[in-house]
Design brief:
Length: 236
């Protein structure tokens, strides 16, 4: 699995590269905005880790360039946890952010979570052929982050208008099909647009909203089923 690392501080960059390679990731390390723009198109990557403050620009510009080229998961490294920086990154399509200074184990955990949410396996492959997941009459286009509902009579597909968090929640279920997911497991992966982790009560609201948008009969859900006392399950 190949990671793209943009970090201008050599001490941090080399330390991260060493630690990530110990976890069997292949890491391409660049130090400037211009080097990042020149290097990114030479190979394909499973995830990008981008520093925001650079000597010749910022990581936002690089993220914008990457997202125009390919839908690759992005984690920002930032020296500031100011809300404006976090929101700007998430609105730009970033999947997560980590504030400096950070523990390497924290970053490794975030990487694994983002890769799992994005539908990429440990080998870097999309979990379904051609980047499409299908569950009953729900069709998830991973490369476009779009969800369609297929009419079983006509075959016509209409787009379900999911929020970013509803989409992440659906992916979490899809990537664990056949396994019961506890509320605690779901809460580990969920946060709102401001970067705040979702609490238990809010999770209930998001699951209801998601069911309202994808289930034929939300009052009797057949896609995201409740396993009483344990959590939720999406069948294989």
């Amino acid at each position: 699995m190949r990671l793209f690392l943009l970090e201008d501080d050599d001490a941090i960059g080399m330390g991260l590269k060493y630690s990530l390679e110990k976890e069997n990731y292949e890491v391409v390390h660049v130090r400037t905005k211009n080097e990042a723009l020149e290097t990114f198109s030479e190979k394909s990557y499973d995830l990008c880790i981008l520093d925001i403050n650079l000597p010749d620009g910022n990581g936002y510009d690089v993220c914008r360039y990457i997202k125009e080229k390919e839908d690759v998961p992005v984690i920002f490294l930032t020296a500031s946890d100011a809300e404006v920086n976090v929101v700007m990154g998430l609105e730009m399509g970033a999947d997560d952010y980590v504030c400096k200074p950070f523990r390497i184990n924290e970053l490794l955990a975030r990487i694994k979570t983002v890769l799992r949410r994005s539908g990429r396996g440990r080998d870097g492959s999309i979990s379904e052929t051609e980047g499409i997941l299908e569950i009953q009459n729900v069709r998830i286009h991973l490369s476009e982050a779009k969800v369609g509902i297929v009419d079983e009579t006509t075959g016509k597909e209409t787009t379900a208008d999911l929020t970013a968090l509803e989409y992440r929640l659906l992916l979490a279920f899809c990537n664990n099909r056949g396994n019961v997911m506890s509320r605690n497991q779901l809460l580990e992966d969920m946060w709102d647009v401001n970067g705040d982790f979702v609490n238990d009560n809010t999770l209930t609201v998001y699951i209801k909203r998601l069911r309202d948008k994808i289930e034929k009969d939300p009052a009797n859900p057949q896609i995201i089923r409740t396993v009483r006392g344990l959590g939720y399950i999406v069948d294989k």
